[in-house]
Specification:
17 helices; hydrolase; one-carbon metabolism; alpha/beta; NAD(P)-bd_dom_sf; 8-stranded mixed β-sheet; S-Ado-L-homoCys_hydrolase_CS
């Protein structure tokens, strides 16, 4: 039985964060404009007929789904089984709790990237008793074979790689607007599903028991609703949990930045001059990886604390304009907009590589490059050469969208950590007694963060040291945790 003794209190309210990331982005900008395409073995152009126009049924005769090709289900199932091998903690949670069915009666509508790893999460929620309807949070991130496997297993999934913007909202609406089925929980990534339900189906929104949001953009939208007094349900900010920030953002990007750059450009990093814009958790991971391969790394920062950390880690902190003429690679990871402008792009050296590791495509001013005097040449998948009149070329990756999910993949193990956190947050919100959570945004308690971490330790054959009673009394801690204060 999953219990967090003495910690089933109200989640610590997390103060609104402002400053670095814009809070006013449009609903569609974070998803239909953000090109976050996980690697898929099926191409979105293999069939020109829109899935919306196809009549498909799974082996059980159900047509309650819309995917690219249901015949790819067997291949997708193998992908999911491979992902399960490196998501042992989530599978462990599934085995521990499926007897109790803590999500029995839960009707979860979800909007996330649909990959083999998120499929493991979806099937875990179903094993714990939930009914799920799912759409993709990004028009390019869906693995078609995985969506087919979920549909074959009976999940009402509406997603395919290469959706149009109209398709994107149609898929979300098909998940929400169902006769005889009304969602009572939301799992979101980016906030589009939440805002669609809020604006289009206010009566459904009022009956939602809890929202779990994992992205910075979606969390900011929730805080906006809360600040305006329009958030009428409790919401969980998973993005700022320790297990999300310290692992997904830092360690995941430390490995996937190299993967994405190598697959697209075959670049050798030794001796290359690289500027990383932003030294948050993502920036720290990128810099550590690049430094390890012998690159000369510069950092740009607006925050003096992050800038000082970069200095102490051995990186030179500069303004982008000071090094833009000499660097070989420019990487953005600030979450801001117009970090790299047309002026910067005009001053770059020939063959400079430009890419983004931030949440959306707002960091690089790609729109300014779509002018008559510049020529675009697609040299391989997700790699464009933008050619100036004098022959200079800038290598633009994924059209300025999220590099790792557009051009490679992300480590399954890290996604297990995030997925386990999401599952526990849904369980807690759904089973919380009335009055525990008010109409506000809450941060995951450290006890639950530590539980997620503990589930992943057996993968490394790690053995925790236990406090003695005397030591615990000396530190003022419970022997079983939490060991971190809520403000950590």
């Amino acid at each position: 039985q999953i219990q967090f003794a003495d910690d089933m209190q109200e989640f610590t309210k997390f103060p609104t964060k402002t400053g670095r990331r814009s809070l006013s982005r449009s609903i569609s900008q974070s998803s239909t404009d953000s090109y976050s395409s996980a690697a898929s073995y099926t191409d979105s152009s293999d069939d020109e007929v829109s899935p919306r126009e196809k009549q498909q049924t799974n082996s059980k005769g159900s047509s309650n789904f819309c995917v690219k090709n249901i015949k790819q289900a067997e291949f997708g199932r193998r992908e999911i089984e491979i992902a399960e091998q490196d998501m042992s903690a989530l599978i462990s949670l599934r085995k521990r709790a499926q007897g109790e069915k803590p999500l029995a009666g839960a009707k979860i509508v979800g909007c996330t990237h649909i990959t083999a790893q998120t499929a493991v999460l979806i099937e875990t929620l179903c094993a714990l008793g939930a009914q799920c309807r799912w759409s993709a949070c990004n028009i390019y991130s869906t693995q078609n074979e995985v969506a087919a496997a979920l549909a074959e297993a009976g999940v009402a999934v509406f997603a395919w790689k290469g959706e149009s913007e109209d398709d994107f909202w149609w898929c979300i609406d098909r998940c929400v607007n169902v006769d005889g089925w009304q969602a009572n929980m939301i799992l979101d990534d980016g906030g589009d599903l939440t805002h669609w339900v809020y604006k289009k189906y206010p009566n459904v929104f009022k009956k939602i028991r809890g929202i779990v949001e994992e992205s910075v953009t979606g969390v900011h939208r929730l805080y906006q609703l809360s600040k305006a007094g329009k958030l009428c349900v409790p919401a969980m900010n998973v993005n700022d949990s320790v297990t999300k920030q310290k692992f997904d953002n830092l360690y995941c990007c430390r490995e996937s930045i190299l993967d994405g750059l190598k697959r697209t450009t075959d670049v050798m990093f030794g001796g290359k001059q690289v500027v990383v814009c932003g030294y948050g958790e993502v920036g720290k991971g990128c810099c550590a990886a690049l430094k390890a391969l012998g690159a000369i790394v510069y950092v740009t920062e607006i925050d003096p604390i992050c800038a000082l950390q970069a200095c102490m880690d051995g990186f030179r902190v500069v303004k982008l304009s000071e090094v833009i003429r000499q660097v070989d690679v420019v990487i953005t990871c600030t979450g801001n907009k117009n970090v790299v402008t047309r002026e910067h792009l005009d001053r770059m050296k020939n063959s400079c590589i430009v890419c983004n590791m931030g949440h959306s495509n707002t960091e690089i001013d790609v729109t300014s490059l779509r002018t008559p005097e510049l020529t675009w040449e697609r040299v391989r998948s997700q790699v464009d050469h933008v050619i100036w009149p004098d022959g200079k070329r800038v290598v633009l990756l994924a059209e300025g969208r999220l590099l790792n999910l557009s051009c490679s993949t992300v480590p399954t193990f890290v996604l297990s950590i995030t997925a386990t956190t999401q599952a526990l947050a849904l369980i807690e919100l759904y089973n919380a007694p009335e009055g525990r959570y008010k109409q506000d945004v809450y941060l995951l308690p450290k006890k639950m963060d530590e539980y997620v971490a503990s589930l992943h330790l057996p993968s490394f054959d790690a053995h925790l040291t236990e406090l003695t009673d005397d030591q615990a009394k000396y530190l003022g801690l419970n022997k079983n945790g939490p060991f971190k204060p809520n403000y950590y």
